[in-house]
């Protein structure tokens, strides 16, 4: 039997080699004043995982939105199994079996998981929605994907990671030939990621072609077959994933040579404790009996799965999540239950993970966004009146320091790439004298070049004696950038790992320890 | 999303220039130009200094209400009770003033001051209720201000029995209604002062910036250490304050306290703001544009009067303009999105 499958697969491979599953010739997309894509050739074979690689703003998103039918090219041609096609809409693309999972979710928050899964393609019986069949098929899709979701759950009650799962599951409701995934693992736990990769493996065996956007080198290694690099809207090169080194890719992507992504950790001995948390439990019990200590001049990592409480603990300390019991001391002072406003004034800043929804005013300028947390003090104001020229000068200097690109501080934030939006948020940490700064997932959706400068920025802050907490789901970040780490599991601090015990195996062991037991 | 690195400037043909201007300035300048041209053609009396001063005087009340409405819109809400606030302050103010004046006919100044204080306090009480509902109980601004509009209107009718309140001191109307200084009507000075103070507050103080922050991203504002609850509460109190001042000025003009004035204010003030580019999603809008927006609506009403367009039809035009402005805002957003892609 296995032999039979093998021959079928071989045949498929051969026919695929003859005419690729999906191919573009000289795709160009221009907007008034901007060329987003400039004559890009791209080829997807059946059964391969083809990674699109490039900096934020290189044109990856534009290309996949064209492939998915969400956007129409200004020039160029798309071929599907050798025949020219025009994709007027997402619907056209779906009919060919091309489905995309974008970073921006297309879910109706007030509807349930199953209603979202079959939105626009509801099964009917005699003109009425066939709820039983929808439930059945929703269950079988979720089951096949190994996603722990109930079909009747409302989407707005789900975490971001769970919403991402629903979004992925949506692509599976009809027959697939091409699946486009835009950074699908950005908010998935490693367990869910494993599942997704397993699934991708099954799909490619069935001859489905996968277009995959990621910034994570480890993922490219694990599932990538070929990599196409884009830069400034232009096609640069297509390389085999197996033979390409990280340095090669970064060079192709940026057009220049970048040293190691992580800076060297040459921090002096930690100073006095800045944050002391004792037995903290939040009202909603996302954090239970957590105790951590962070001292001046050290970078402490908070590792764990999404929803393990690592983020919620610091939000509770900051005053954004209500505390049921326990104590929080900042520089020896009891600050339990204080508002963010008082904590910021006391020198404690929390920079949230979700820039778009919790961090930035997207339609306001860079200047206003950077200055927001420090408008009550010099040089931004004398407490009553704003000093607008000093504000502009300070923010200009910060933009320069962080290499904001383009360095236009009056532009609204939504006109910048993800990496630059992140820089705008990071700049806030320099507008006041902070003793403790919490970075929650500071590099999600940020390209490698910008990531290196963000790491350098964080280490630089620690060198000046600021206590840093780095909350991250990206293991290499925890391993290479922190001097000590706490690992969270289901709301509890599972363990504390000192620098010499900070290895991948050790951290991972505590991610799952009790789950396997 | 994608690149703006490979910027290829397209040739500056007139249509493209217009499009860029539209994206930058919004619909208002275009509407103003069109309105001035149309009404000048329709009536010889339109483009005269005398008439334009008339437009200014007539627009003052809407202008004052609109700058308050703008604050509510900035924070991502709106206030449908501005009309009621105006009416209630008119009624309460007039009753207090006439009662005091009847008791102490010699103390005209004190009667006017006490009456204004009473009227504005009555208006503020509606704002306080709105603020408590929206800021502390998280009631949607739509429901809260709609409910308060009914409550306020009912109270105003109940207090007066639906009959206008007479017996105001003559000096009140003479000064605040019909007074002139250097050829400019007194209400214009009041409006100018309010606009100036609000301008300084919005653009020169941290708290002013916080209105934009709360509407721009409530969660981000809260995590940035901004007192979002206090800011929201303050928004509705301020909005009511402006409506109440407009109510007292209008009372001076018509020389009576009336429960029926201001019913068109919610629509007109929101229209003035939206035409001026204030976003219904919050966080975007400039005070100077709102002043122009209110003037524009005054201009259109005046022009239609001169062109002898029936008042019922004027209402149709106003509603259509509001919808047009919202559509234009949507188109503009689409252009902005396409420009940044």
TrEMBL record, chain B:
Key words, A-Z: Cell membrane, Membrane, Transmembrane, Transmembrane helix
Residues passing through the membrane, by range: 21-40, 60-78, 85-104, 110-137, 149-172, 178-202, 233-254, 312-331
Organism for this UniProt entry: Pseudohoeflea coraliihabitans
Membrane topology of this protein: Multi-pass membrane protein
PANTHER family with a match to the protein in the record: ABC TRANSPORTER PERMEASE PROTEIN YPHD-RELATED-RELATED
UniProt subcellular location: Cell membrane
Location, primary (coarse class): membrane
Signal peptide: none
Pfam families named among the record's database cross-references: BPD_transp_2
Entry protein name: ABC transporter permease
Lineage: Bacteria, Pseudomonadati, Pseudomonadota, Alphaproteobacteria, Hyphomicrobiales
